[in-house]
Design a protein that fits this description.
One of its GO terms (molecular function) is phosphorelay sensor kinase activity. With about 475 residues, the chain is an alpha+beta fold. About 55% of the residues lie in helices and about 15% in strands.
């Protein structure tokens, strides 16, 4: 068994109790076990009492018949058990001497010798004589007169179930109890699972919202009930969310477009002013600073527009993209300040929008160039059913506790602010959003030095195995 399998087995009870289905099954089986165990004990007591009463009636009838038949003659013939009577019969004198016995007890001492010698008139109880090697229920009646003189006792006995018999009975009952508990547990698990099928379908539908967008709706069951009300409530909530998102997106889009027009005009005027002689004019440093702020503001607006389109899941043309070819083209268009090394595996293709993937790579390269000391490495490979794109740098890296924070919008670490004060804090969130739109992921993995950004996307169907 592997470590993962052992860990899964160890965590199985916790996972079982963490679900409603598991808790309901465990509680039902536990309560059923208590009830069935009580019923089992009660049944054993009833069976014991029934058997004991039946045997006592048989013993009484046997003694009555023997007493009625006693007369001078061969005593052993008088006490031969008849069909339906107790198997053991004895006639014992007051001194405890056996004067007559059924065939199975011939040569054995009295079944209840002590009580006979004490003069008890009626014997009715459980006795375990050593010579017999077993326990028996004995019923006896002392006679006033008999062929053997006054005070003789006629006794009848029947063997009691031994320990092996009782153990077998208990084991059989426990086996039946275990089988019933298994059936109860399976039926509870199955029934609750069937009840939760529509809930699981709703959950699966809601899990697809990241890919399908808020325009997707939960199918409403034709039957009435709580599940139909749940689906209708979810769809109503989604309607309100979509309406709020549409208004927000419209505001961002309108505001961005309205701001870009005067901003573009301002940027052009500043660029024209900087071209005016003389180059040593006192006002030009201030204009250059204003131009930098205008360009940064323009970058923020461009990123906000991109995020607005991604959040709305606006349709974009999807095609088969070779990641290696895309990486070569994007790297060739750049003029990096550090060396970019590549390890590009052939035949690694995905289904996505080429422009969006180019933006992901561009954002990752810009981030790596901002932090790298001397080199950047771009890796494209296939890993099982995934296409993998890695961008590594030899900078100071990202602290482990901040690896998710860098993907938050407008979030920037102190080092990033120091190296590039003009950054928007939207490049990495946009890259992750694009990766998730196409069923992939983007995260920061461990690396001996620097940061290692890893994007995984599903391989395009039909990608050749190399």
């Amino acid at each position: 068994m592997t470590t993962e399998q052992r860990e899964a087995v160890r965590r199985w009870p916790t996972r079982l109790m963490s679900s409603v289905r598991g808790r309901a099954t465990v509680i039902t089986v536990g309560v059923s076990a208590v009830i069935l165990l009580l019923l089992f004990v009660l049944l054993l007591l009833l069976v014991r009492d029934f058997t004991l009463n039946r045997d006592r009636r048989t013993l009484e009838r046997t003694v009555e018949r023997v007493v009625y038949d006693l007369r001078p003659g061969d005593p052993d013939q008088m006490i031969v058990p008849r069909p339906g009577e107790a198997p053991w019969v004895q006639v014992v004198t007051p001194e405890g001497k056996v004067v007559a016995a059924s065939s199975e007890l011939r040569g054995h001492p009295s079944l209840a010798g002590t009580d006979v010698r004490r003069g008890k008139l009626l014997i009715d109880g459980r006795y375990c004589p050593e010579a017999l090697g077993d326990c028996a229920w004995v019923f006896g009646l002392r006679l006033r007169d008999s062929p053997w003189g006054p005070g003789a006792v006629v006794m009848a006995g029947t063997p009691l179930p031994g320990k092996p018999t009782m153990a077998g009975l208990v084991a059989s009952a426990l086996l039946v109890l275990a089988g019933l508990l298994f059936l109860i547990g399976w039926w509870t698990w199955y029934t609750i699972g069937r009840v939760f099928v529509p809930v699981d379908q709703i959950r699966a539908q809601m899990a697809d919202f990241s890919a399908l967008g808020l325009g997707h709706r939960i199918p409403v069951s034709e039957t009435s009930g709580e599940l139909r009300s749940l689906a209708e409530t979810v769809n109503s909530t989604l309607d309100r969310l979509e309406d709020a998102r549409v208004r927000e997106r419209r505001f961002v889009s309108d505001a961005s477009h309205d701001l870009r027009n005067p901003l573009s005009g301002l940027q052009m005027q500043l660029e024209l002013a900087l071209e005016e002689p003389p180059d040593s004019a006192d006002w030009k440093p201030m204009v250059r600073s204003a131009l930098g702020d205008a360009r940064r503001l323009n970058d923020i607006l461009v990123d906000l527009l991109a995020l607005s389109k991604l959040d709305s899941r606006a349709p974009a043309e999807v095609e088969t993209v070779d990641l290696a070819a895309l990486a070569r083209r994007e790297i060739g268009r750049r003029e990096p300040r550090v060396t970019i090394e590549t390890r590009l595996g052939p035949g690694v293709t995905v289904r996505a929008n080429r422009v969006r993937l180019a933006r992901v790579l561009g954002n990752l390269l810009s981030n790596a160039e901002r932090h790298a000391e001397s080199r950047i490495e771009v890796v494209v490979l296939r890993d099982g059913d995934d296409a993998v794109l890695e961008v590594l740098d030899d900078g100071s890296g990202v602290p482990e506790d901040a690896r998710e924070r860098v993907f938050e919008r407008f979030s920037r670490l102190p080092e990033s602010r120091a190296r590039d004060p003009q950054g928007t804090g939207l490049g990495l969130p946009i890259a992750r959003e694009i990766a998730e739109i196409y069923g992939g992921s983007l995260r920061i993995a461990d690396s001996p030095r620097g940061a290692r950004f890893v994007m995984r996307l599903p391989l395009a169907s039909g990608s050749p195995e190399l």
